[in-house]
């Protein structure tokens, strides 16, 4: 754990390497020191239809870090800061970059495999 889920405005794929973006976010989660590296799962989804304010031409990246309950607010903040620091060089020219930590509902979370 965590699941690092990256949403991005689809036109960004023409401006930056999405593979490098995923790697940067993944590395930021590793660098946080909060998780076993083999437990981190990272993926990216392009958003074809979006608006940022009133401007459909602006670019965005939003990273959701879904974790199991039990981390302190300080640990969650350290996680977002670590991921942001790792992804910022790749995303420097993106108009809007945001990150959030969400907690999975442990009683209903089901997992098979690694």
Q: What do these coordinates show?
A:
There is one protein chain. Helices cover 29% and strands 26% of the residues. The chain is an alpha/beta fold and 114 residues long. The chain has one domain: Macrophage Migration Inhibitory Factor. The chain has a 4-stranded mixed β-sheet, with helices on one face. Helix 1 (18-31) runs antiparallel to helix 2 (73-91). The chain is globular and about 40 Å long. The mean pLDDT is 94. Its EC number is 5.3.3.10. It is an enzyme of class 5 (isomerase). This is 5-carboxymethyl-2-hydroxymuconate Delta-isomerase. It comes from Shewanella algae.
How far apart the termini lie comes to 10 Å
Side by side, the strands of the main sheet go: 2-1-3-4
Number of helices: 2
Task: Return the average pLDDT rounded to an integer.
Answer: 94
CATH class descriptor: Alpha Beta
Overall form: globular
Q: Please tell me how large the radius of gyration is.
A: 14 Å
Helix percentage: 25-40%
How much of the sequence is in beta strands?
Answer: 25-35%
Task: Provide the fold topology.
Layout: E1 3-9, H1 18-31, E2 41-47, E3 60-67, H2 73-91, E4 96-103
Parallel strand pairs: 1-2, 3-4
Antiparallel strand pairs: 1-3
Helix pairs in contact: 1-2
